[in-house]
């Protein structure tokens, strides 16, 4: 009688490499931003998204504000933001965000939001007022808005991008073949159309893709070509990091040399600016993107 064959060992999970180490947030500038965010009862994607650059950015006196609450109607498999039925809809939020940005004295502010699919206008009116009131209180401050998928509500998109912001970003997050796994309630072509319509409205366009989810080089090249064809100006590329055990696992840790290669490829294929590196996130060095020619 032949002995039973041993079950094949599960493939080892990739170990986090040295180039993904970050410094803990410290210092008086970081503490000041921490205090202002708490006093004004604001949400930041820095915290909700477990961003690895929070120490660096907050230490420089900047933060990315998240409006429309901190509960998202989507259930993307990569994102650390809470999912559920939002009960927060604060029409006074634009004033509080604008005042906080003024108090911080930032030269460039980034504003993002959760998805609010249950709202008829996807939260567009709050988006518009946040940008307008920020500009009123801080006219010299430039603004990037990282907006969600409007689910083809193009009237809502028009309102979201009409407040006077200099950069409008919408993240693709991954390549087309992985959308059902990574962004099950989104559509690759719909996000491309949202970028195209934003460009047609005369805005400086930006998007971001996470690497290490199982994409191939050929799929990355196609995604960059698709983005260029739909009017994208600026692309950020960074390493996906699993926020909790409940989220999709990292398939691969991408070496910095490959990030450098993708930057060269993106520029060669027609993108005007590419920020590419393991720790790059959508808002990383965002102040540099406002001067990209359109």
Automatic annotation (TrEMBL):
Question: Which top EC class is given?
Answer: transferase
Which prosthetic group or cofactor does it need? Answer: [4Fe-4S] cluster
According to its UniProt record, where is this protein located? Cytoplasm
SMART domains the UniProt entry points to: Elp3 (SM00729)
Q: Name one GO molecular function term.
A: 4 iron, 4 sulfur cluster binding
Q: Which residues bind [4Fe-4S] cluster 1?
A: 46, 51, 57, 283
Q: For this protein, what does the record note about how its cofactor is bound?
A: Binds 2 [4Fe-4S] clusters per subunit. One cluster is coordinated with 3 cysteines and an exchangeable S-adenosyl-L-methionine.
Binding-site list for [4Fe-4S] cluster 2: 72, 76, 79
Cellular component aspect of the GO annotation: cytoplasm
Question: Which BP terms does GO give this entry?
Answer: protein lipoylation
Q: What is its EC number?
A: 2.8.1.8
Top-rank taxon, per record:
Bacteria
Q: Which HAMAP family does this chain map to?
A: Lipoyl_synth
Q: State the protein's name.
A: Lipoyl synthase
